[in-house]
Design goal:
Chain lengths: ~325, ~100
């Protein structure tokens, strides 16, 4: 009786033979190869710890679904991204007044952007990034403290989970995000110089860059001072003199500023706003100062040599005169 | 806080001092249309100033109050202002009827 299973075709047999031979060879050495080819380092390495949470949702100190927690994150990112921030107190402004003020502010900033674009600056529209927003003071304080005092990069613990020295019980590397418990513990008892300012109803005006020109425009709208930051005239900008805008501005009170992490009072803010020509102007001033310094230095260095020369020269002429006088005066005496 | 009998409010404070809280909160207690009915003057002191913060209130009957905001606190200031305001309300009620 012929076998029921027909023999495989030639091509298939060749493939099968190939495979079988390799698998046979493996099977031959299997008992020898499997165990001892693990290196010493590999043996000591613990398995990387398993995360018990999704990567996008690390556990937080306060429940992350609360509005507070999300506001904290929002404020922290705002504070990290804005180098120039003005703090205002708003005393019961109505919504009409807010819209009017925002409109006038945007108008003024757009004008600055246009003049800068004409002058050939290509930094994009800084004015569009300038926002005035009302903040929750308590949450803003803790966000400020986290941004200022909590620097997780600097004190990162070296307990790498794949490091043999780290205990196998260390499951999760320390979390360092804004909402983490580490951030909370590190900043809980700190005090910041801006903290006394952050009481009562507050609004902050944030700039994406330190631009004195934009600051000047904003100050001339929000807290005009006749000489330094003149408010737009009625002819130039009639919208600014609308009743809602004016009544709103009366109730808006500039308190201070935070520039590049430093706290400024009103005088300091005015000074920053009054820097002529912005950062470029400052650079020009610095170059001028250095040049004059160089000139002064050369003159100082020259000075001593010159004075020496003059002294020596004076002495020489004196000696010559003496010699002349001596030669001239000696005969008289004798 | 009763603000209908006020004609003038003057505050002086240094925003960088923690004690300025009282004066600032007092300002925020004034209603949105306060500037139309009374005169509100605010003086901000420079950061280094050590002057005490101050709330000065004038009433319609001419009474002037000069309150030390740092000592009283916001509750005390409101109490002082309301005490006289209530008297004025009472008088107004009596004269009207």
């Amino acid at each position: 009786m012929p076998p029921r299973i027909s023999p495989p075709s030639k091509a298939i047999t060749s493939i099968l033979r190939c495979k079988r031979s390799s698998s046979l060879r493996l099977r031959q050495y299997a008992t020898i190869v499997a165990a001892p080819q693990v290196s010493y380092a590999q043996l000591n390495r613990t398995a990387p710890p398993t995360a018990k949470f999704p990567k996008t949702q690390p556990p937080s100190y306060k429940p992350p679904e609360f509005r507070k927690s999300q506001l904290l994150r929002q404020y922290a990112s705002l504070l990290r991204s804005t180098p120039l921030m003005l703090v205002f107190q708003h005393n019961n402004l109505k919504s009409v007044e807010w819209t009017g003020i925002r409109r006038e502010l945007n108008k003024a900033l757009r004008k600055v952007d246009e003049t800068r674009a004409k002058a050939g600056h290509v930094e994009g529209n800084v004015g569009e990034g300038v926002k005035i927003q009302i903040i929750q003071t308590g949450i803003f304080i803790s966000a400020l403290k986290i941004v200022e005092f909590y620097k997780p990069e600097t004190n990162k613990s070296p307990s790498d989970p794949t490091d043999p020295a780290s205990p196998s019980s260390a499951t999760v590397p320390e979390l360092t995000h804004t909402l983490s418990e580490a951030a909370h513990q590190a900043t809980m008892k700190k005090t910041h110089a801006l903290m006394p300012l952050l009481v009562g109803p507050l609004a902050v005006l944030t700039f994406p860059t330190v631009s004195p020109q934009h600051l000047k425009a904003a100050l001339s709208i929000l807290s005009p001072i006749p000489g330094q930051f003149p408010a737009p005239s009625r002819k130039a900008n009639p919208g600014y003199h609308d009743l809602p805008v004016q009544t709103g501005l009366q109730k808006l009170l500039l308190l201070g500023a935070r520039v590049e992490g430093q706290v400024f009072d009103i005088e300091g803010t005015k000074w920053v706003g009054s820097i002529e020509g912005g950062v470029d102007g400052l650079r020009g001033q610095l170059v001028n100062m250095l040049q004059s310094l160089g000139a002064g230095l050369t003159s100082t260095l020259e000075g001593s040599a010159k004075s020496l020369y003059f002294t020596v020269e004076g002495r020489r002429t004196m000696l010559e005169d003496e010699a002349k006088g001596g030669s001239g005066g000696a005969p008289k005496e004798s | 806080m009763i603000t209908t009998h006020l004609t003038s409010v003057r505050t002086v404070f240094n925003p960088f001092s923690p004690a300025a809280k009282t004066a600032r909160i007092f300002l925020s207690f004034l209603p949105p249309d306060a500037r139309q009915t009374m005169q509100v003057v605010t003086k901000l002191l420079p950061r280094t100033s050590k002057e005490r913060s101050l709330v000065e209130v004038k009433f319609k009957d001419g009474k002037e109050m000069r309150l030390d905001a740092e000592k009283l606190g916001i509750k005390g200031v409101v109490e002082e202002v309301d005490r006289h305001s209530r008297i004025l309300t009472r008088q107004a009620e009596l004269t009207d009827n």
